[in-house]
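Structure representation:
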Amino acid sequence: MKFWVSYRTSEGEDFIHQIPLLFAKLGSSVILPCSHSDDFINYISWYKHSFGKKPLLVAYSEHGSGSVTYQNGFDKTNRYFIRIGSGSFNLSIIHVEEYDFANYYCAVSFLNIIKFGEGTILLPKERDRIRSTTVLQEPVFDRLHPGDSVTLQCSVISEICAGEYSVYWFRHSSGYSQPGIIYTHNNRSDQCMKRSENGSSTQSCVYSLPQTELRSSDAGMYYCAVATCGKIHFGNGTKLTIEGTLLWNPFTLVLATLTIMAMIVIIILLIVIQKTCIKVRG
């Protein structure tokens, strides 16, 4: 049997609702909500996608059966549990480990179509101590329109580790099923400033992501992520809002002008015809 995969592309197709971002401490428990429409659903499922690996099916359930089937050994960990409710299919993870930090997607299927939610990114909650790596993103306050340009900024303060580190840019928007990598940086010495303080060496780096000739589809949350010292650290995100505008191209302008002229001619003809009729009757 063939299955077609479909992604939510407009606000009018809200089949699945997920929380875009969740944080959890190691050893704690977390619930990943998934609410959905009850109409015409055959199966509902959860997928886990770790960076650089293929997606794994966590569990699925036939709609209305009340039973859950776990896959890929997730039932053997005794840490992944599904809670089925009216219009919900929530995933619970207890005793969170490093392995659990990933992207999770809720999906529903009906007939031969599978529809995915926008996904939930599960990230580690920083400890109370001072972080060894800090990723800061500057907000964009400008009112942007299609065709404009903007540069996103990402500042990274980190300990100096052996080897280079990498910087990734992710975009998460309503028109895509999952946050996708749109750009990567390799560490370059001319982008960073090194300093020593209290016996430890740190470096401060600034990375830019130019966005030119913006389109409405470029709107969404942009996340800067840094892979260093064996860990990956995410920024707080920068929201890009693009206001819709009515763009007049030459063809549209000429067509509008001709339409207005035609209406004026019609009005003049009607006035002339009316005056002629009055004279004939008189």
Observations:
- DSSP finds one helix and 22 strands in the chain.
- The first helix runs from residue 250 to 281.
- The CA atoms of residues 39 and 110 lie 9 Å apart.
